[in-house]
């Protein structure tokens, strides 16, 4: 079963609906004590970084997610959820993240004054051929729905399995051991997004 972490800052319904459509067993989890029992976990997120981290801490989900990742089970962060996996964010100040994957979250506005920020809409990404999350998705189909004003910059390029050129090179898919992330919304990205969620469900622990 995939547990969808509910800490008050996630778009839960659309993720659950997508997993239901794929016949993937899932449950929205709002009790941190139930996280450890999940076969896999999705950490969603929308809104402001600082508020999301505060909510994770206040609900007890921060410790639960960190312990889950340390256990070796697979964790997927979506949108802000991916950003929370990194070391820190420069969104309206400097705020510490979960530090599961070394890296920072940077403002898109700093990349170019000519950019439209936030970046909202469909964007084509460039994927590494060895990506596990994007396995089986043809290059011409690697188009996903984005809503973001900040982007991820990972310290280790070996953990980056897809990028987006949007003023800067944005790391939009990460695969770092048992920790995964995607900056876009797979649950809103039609066939390619469904394929990513199915890949996450079906992949073996490495």
* Element-by-element helix/strand order: EHEEHHEHEEEEEEEEEEH
Structural class: alpha/beta
Q: Would you identify the CATH H-level superfamily?
A: Class I glutamine amidotransferase (GATase) domain
The outline comes out as globular
Question: Percent range for helical residues?
Answer: 10-25%
Strand order of the largest sheet: 2-1-3-4-14-13-12-9
Question: How can the largest sheet be summarized?
Answer: 8 strands, mixed
Provide the residue-averaged pLDDT. 95
- Percent strand equals 25-35%
Rg computed from alpha carbons, rounded to a whole number of angstroms: 15 Å
Distance between the termini: 18 Å
The tally of strands reads 14
Question: Which fold name is given in CATH as the topology?
Answer: Rossmann fold
Which residues sit in consecutive blocks of at least 5 with pLDDT less than 50? Answer: none
Number of domains: 1
CATH class: Alpha Beta
Number of helix segments?
5
The assigned CATH architecture is 3-Layer(aba) Sandwich
